[in-house]
## 1
Amino acid sequence: MKILLHNCCGPCTIYPLRRLRELGHQVHGYFFNPNIHPCAEWLKRRETLLHYASENQLPVIAYDQYDLEDYLREVVRREAERCRFCYSMRLRRAARVAGQGNFDAFTTTLLVSPYQKHDLIREIGLAVAKETGIPFYYVDFRPGYREAVQMSRSLGMYRQRYCGCIFSEKERFYNKNRAKAAKK
């Protein structure tokens, strides 16, 4: 099959790309991540992916607009459900691009991370497939996560420490600093 692989970043692309190719699929990447904050982080992730893709003969459709405002409009006042809206935005766009590019299916590198809400991603992917008529190719890529982490480190790839959204960035830094302050 010709599969459009939504890419959140370079390191998370390593295992899904290899696995899909092992299964005999023709893979194209798609970078669309309006959730990533700040813009400098978005640029680092985009450039890391594009560099890895060029070295591994992965054609990538890179959406070059930094549409943070669209993401924020979706999640404002619904922060507790932000992941649902974020996954929906990205998978819906990937499905549309897959349809326009005559792909047989779409999937996402989000399925490699044990830190993402795997069941929710699958649920949304299947719902988007039903809406759009473009099949969601579900694979649990998590068994390859540790291997991909090691490989990305050995390649010297930029590795992020949070999912990308402004809320996860706050949780990462604010909670750490609050805990340190409480100990003083």
## 2
Amino acid sequence: MKKFLSTALLLWSAMAAHAHEGGITSEKGKGVKADFDIFHTKITTEGNVATFHIAVSGKAGASKPSKTGKLAGSSVFSYVWPTTIDPAVVGFEPKAGILAFAVTAHPDFDDTPLYDENGDGDPKNDGNLWHSHWVVLAPDDQCGKGALKVVDIPPGAKPRLPKTWPGFPILLDSPGWSPIFKGQTLEVKVPFDDIGVVNAAGFDGVTSALRVNASVHAPLLCIVDVFKVASGKLSLPGKVNH
């Protein structure tokens, strides 16, 4: 029995070590809450499916924003993979900004109207559950000096948008790919028509908080607090499958 347990422990340790190979490794962050303290970020592909992976020093997904009861001024917590992939690959205008894949939770609004994540028959009350998005980011000093926002859609503009755009006046897509949380790890599997563009991409990992503008006006959704950047400087040094 002891020999069996010892062998099982060694096998588990080897599997755990393999899961955190490649990608970007990060030192423990000072003052960063454990469930947002990224220590490993990677993107790998197999066939036409990309796996977005983040590991943190605590339990991934443990914290969510407090509910305020209104959209204006409400908060969003997020795990994000900024990439060098052109936004046109997922249905936005070419070169519209920084395309990022994100897993978010926000109890005060729902931005996945096509999906009923909690299975209660109402697809419009699931924002408090972790779910996935494509977002296009760009700097806007109205969010704070050097801060990023989700790019706004000006009134009257009709930009190219993905079929699963949820109707918010920002470059946001709700494709419905399910995040999987397991202990310290978060992973999402995402299919692509052209996996080659993913294989050639650079990426980074970020944990952050965003806030809806108190006047619900452009800039609508700003990144107001960055908990951790995997590379330290958002330099997108990660290479897919490396």
## 3
Amino acid sequence: MNLIKIKTYNLFWLVALIILMIGLIQDHFEDNTFDINIHDTYFVIAHLHFAIFLSLTYYLIGLGYWIVQKAMKRKLINVLTIIHSAILNGSFLVYWLVIGYSKAFLETPFPLFDNYQLINQTLVILTILILLIGQPIYIINLTIGIFKKQKKAYS
């Protein structure tokens, strides 16, 4: 069976496109803001602006992989690439599964009270996972790929 081999940078570009499409779709809803409460300060960000930021981030990560693999013709460490891709793309999938679960199964007794505790906890855990494990692995992988000496083919 001949399977099409999906490159890592194509996967990140595909997720960037999906994030942008979700942001454009959610821009038409009534509740289209992302609220962050830190102590007594609220940060209110439109879903579209947050989607553009995340989409650009995923695009730049894919661009980093493309530059090292295609433009520089360097090999990356497969295990690190898989771990990084699983953390970032898995986080995207887990976030949307939690949102779907909370909208389908969690009901609030008071309709004006938003119960976003599960979603907020998921966001905090995924952000910590991405920033403390995923992104350092990405930086290490690209650095090793750039500075690793190429094996010379002897003829």
## 4
Amino acid sequence: MLKHCLATEAVMKALARHFEEDEHIWGLAGLLHDLDVEMTQADPKIHGLKTAEILREEGYPLDMIDAVKMHNEEATGLERTSLFQHALAAGETITGLIVATTLVYPDKTLASVKARSVVKRMKQKAFAASVSRDHILECEKIGIPLPEFAVLAVDAMKEIAGEIGL
């Protein structure tokens, strides 16, 4: 879980730079978005809500809290609508596809992964079947075509490959 959150932080920082948003806040959203996974036992009916409550109590910005809460739409019954919400949903989800792609490479290192391979794997529904392609494709709702989004995410994760063991 820690490696997933670190990867999501890296992708969110890259997205913040792309959109000229607050890199610190967007990075924190990525780092903390799954803070309640163990507390809620990843129950999709409540996951994200506890984290939002903790972040609110600690005084984090409302747009960050909202994005964290909305990364799991099932808990809220609402649809994502903001740039931040879509970015976090797409950004945290593509990390799983990138990790799965890395692990099928002979050397199992992120340095070998090409963004086009991630896009190719995206089309293979049986590959990393638990990764929501719909969530990843929310990158297009914020104006980033999938191939460009894959480059951004892979490059961001390569910067922290040592930290995430890839």
